[in-house]
Predict the structure.
Amino acid sequence: MSNKPKSASSRKSAPDPLAAHRPSRDLDNGEAIDAFVDAFYARMLRDPRLAPIFFDVAKIDLAIHLPRIKAYWRKMLLGDAAAYRGHMMARHRAVDARRRLVADDYERWLSLFEQTLDSGFAGPGTDRARELGRRIAGNMRRNLSVTRVGHGSVTPKSSVSN
């Protein structure tokens, strides 16, 4: 039996005992925001409920979509108004017109959003992102429901008497 140490390439990867103790990073700079968006979309685009909405209904091109979303979150979290100049509601109305977005869609989106935050981000910027994510999901749900009601197609649950 040889006492020579194994080469790095022949060693099996052991779990990193310090991984759970590494500090989380805050969403207080562009690099961290980009990492968060990448992690969130990796999670979301594997989700059986949400992935079809993005790929089959919205037909997103990730090379175009991800930079826009990163710019949006830079605007929201860093105040970089020049970063994003789109109209989020108009884009989501178009998706909703092709495939009605329902409460479970928003709840799943928010769940994955918060899971991603919890997986490695912490601090005031992260707290702000969590607050904004909750507000965005709620506002999107309400605004799209009102749009449908305004066009006579759907009545929100809250306005239906029991």
Observations:
- The helical segments are 30-44, 51-57, 62-78, 88-98, 103-118, 124-150.
